[in-house]
Amino acid sequence: MVKRICVFAGSNLGAHPKYKVQAQQLGEEIAKNGLELVYGGSRVGLMGEVANTVLAHGGTVIGVMPTGLFRGELVHTGLSRLIEVKDMHERKATMGDLSDAYIALPGGYGTFEELFEVVSWAQLGIHQKPIGLLNIEGYYTPLLNLIDHAVQQGFVQEKHKELLVSAEDARTLIRLLDEYQRPEFGNKWTQLAE
């Protein structure tokens, strides 16, 4: 059962105005459903929009920020709880430990890295948590196409595509995460016998 959602998102607002609007809608849905937000602790970008909206709707927000890594003015000082950690590795581990599910909003290299790490860990069975893409204005469609290409080229098994769920709106995505049933996977290495 999903109680806390870890959100990965851009530290910028992005080029399309719907990114900000949908980030706010995600925050509203998180609070409305009585869920808690876990995220990187910044007050700027899409990250800040989600956090501010959860807080504005009376929800709980837990930020996880490495001490001294970012300028002080980027740290959100109005959170329900701010956890300071020593580095990025501890940040991601802490966010994962605190969360029951993951959502990736549009973002850049950092968002991609966080997303692919949790997908890789799910593939290896390190965690069983659902992972969702909020595919605002088709932002993640090229990524989903890349995964299809990786399947066609024999680097990802067809069944492993089910590790990710995707939706164009927050309400649907939260429902999909709550209903998620992890499929049973066999051996991921095709050269080894099942």
Description:
The protein is built from six helices and seven strands. It has 194 residues and is α/β, with parallel strands linked by helices. It has one domain (4-138, 164-179): Rossmann fold, CATH 3.40.50.450. It has a seven-stranded parallel β-sheet with strand order 4-3-2-1-5-6-7, with helices on both faces. The protein has helices at 17-32, 45-56, 88-98, 109-124, 141-152, 170-179; strands spanning 4-8, 36-39, 60-66, 81-85, 101-104, 131-134, 164-167. Helix content is 40%, strand content 17%. Belongs to the LOG family. GO terms for molecular function: hydrolase activity, hydrolyzing N-glycosyl compounds. This is Cytokinin riboside 5'-monophosphate phosphoribohydrolase. Its EC number is 3.2.2.n1.
Keywords:
40% helix; alpha/beta; 194 residues; Rossmann fold; 7 strands
Ordered list of secondary-structure elements with their pairings:
Elements: E1 4-8, H1 17-32, E2 36-39, H2 45-56, E3 60-66, E4 81-85, H3 88-98, E5 101-104, H4 109-124, E6 131-134, H5 141-152, E7 164-167, H6 170-179
Parallel strand pairs: 1-2, 1-5, 2-3, 3-4, 5-6, 6-7
Brief summary of the model shown:
With 194 residues, the chain is an alpha/beta fold.
Q: Estimate the strand proportion.
A: 15-25%
The poorly predicted ranges are none
What is the share of helical residues? Answer: 25-40%
**Mean pLDDT across every amino acid position:** 93
Would you tell me which CATH topology applies?
Rossmann fold
Family: Belongs to the LOG family.
EC number: 3.2.2.n1
Pfam family, one: Lysine_decarbox
Organism: Alicyclobacillus macrosporangiidus
